[in-house]
Amino acid sequence: MEKVLQILVVLALLILAINYYIKAEKTRFRLYHAAGRVQAPADLLWNLRGMDPDNQLLFMAANEGVLQVLDSNTGELLTHIQVGADPGTQVFDPETRTLYSANGDGTLSIFKQVNRETYKIRQILTTHPGCRLMALDTRTKKIYLPVAGSLPETEGSWLRTDASLPSTAVAGVECWVFSNL
User: Fold this and answer.
1) Which candidate, 84, 98, 104, places its Cα nearest to that of 145?
2) Nearest to 101 by CA among 80, 114, 83, 120
3) Among residues 122, 105, 120, which one has the least CA distance to residue 32?
4) Do residues 127 and 83 touch, judged by C-beta distance below 8 A?
């Protein structure tokens, strides 16, 4: 009887460990990578969505590579977030609790929101100097940055144009696209 109880305890612990692993895989952050040059979908919203509607927060660019996190009801400054120089567009994805900042210095900063006042850096991508406008497709989690000029061919930077990516827009904007899939 004691052996059976020990086996049941071991099985229960194994099931818990497997369940934890599956849950961790589903919520694991996947790094973004340059996926090429495409036409952005025509229905992609290019508005400035630097807002967390659930927590009533606004994300605003400040001087010297700093984002301010403000309470949208009171205007109270909650915290500062250090990003790249010359921050442009900020986009917040409420589903994944992820904040994105396109910066004029040629970086894209990605943060995970821990709570209203705490943001953990997840990744800093190299883009192109002057890329301050950005859109996020919340369905596919692809990040689009409008381009001018050609893709740099330096190692660790952009990939060459990926012809396998569809050109889905009739009146879309030509963009560099980042994907985490």
Assistant:
1) 104
2) 83
3) 122
4) no
